[in-house]
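[step 3/7] fold_predict: job queued, chain A
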Amino acid sequence: MRNKMLVAFFITVISIVFLSNDSFGGWTQPKGGMYNQVSYSYYITKKKFTTIKFDANKAVSGWGGGIAKSESSKFTARDATYYGEYGVTNKITVFTSIPFWKETMSKDIIRYAGERGPSGIGDVNLGIKHKLSDNFLKGPLSFQATVKIPEGYKYGDPLKALSLGDGQYDLTLELFWGRAPVLAGKGYAWLLPGYKFRFENDKFYSFKPSDQIKLAAGGGYPISSKAVIRWLIDWTKSVGNAEVSRELIIENYKYAGKAEQGDHVLIRDTLGLEFDALSAGLSFVYKVSQKSDLVISYNETLEGMGIFETKDAALGKTWSVALTYSF
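[step 4/7] structure written:
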């Protein structure tokens, strides 16, 4: 399995799993209010959903004609992340997500020689959320813009080195809608549609990941005075505008790439630039105090179907634990 695909998909998964607070959705922080969350996650995958065909010797034999589940080299990642929100006004909240420690490990001995992988600071996200309405379909509606900044780590040669991210900038624009209560005077639900613009990486050989259509939904319901169950479904659909340079295609000949493959294998497998993915997760929340929660979460990639079918993405599982504090 080409582990650049796995790094890209791991980043996508934790970006939604880690946001565990009730304000996730259309709600913004009150003026001067602050939400803090420290999370630790563990991600593992040994399989993938792929449109690339492989022969008995695991060499590429073709592509297209359906999606298959296949074995891949084991890949694991661990991540400790701080996420924070601050209410500038009652309608404007700024936020950041900082993976202050991240480590990846690959067992792809063909390409990475079993390298443990780098550790350090991953992609930093900075964003702003603006509440547009307090009562849109009986709930708050907000607009959010997020910039991903890949400057906290050294980006290695994408054909022979693991890195802590894709090494390129993203801009994500989203609408948040939420509603509470939703059932018997309790619980809440949220909906999050958006679009991610993904920009060029030219640090070694030029390539650009596909832009993505994003859709997520979730909610929470109290099962006691101190415990809440939360759920989420997250869908990512590539729009198909990924690109790789001619220089990158030629350089890949050293790693079993062939001229007849063009950019197909690089985009869909080696670099993971154009994946579709559907995942679902559950969280258990225990209220430690009036201002603090303990959150235990699990997320898994689903096969999906139709337009929601997972394609050219890792079949991964993520466990995470988070401690939150608000004031």
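[step 5/7] annotate
The longest helix spans residues 3-17.
The mean pLDDT is 87.
exit 0
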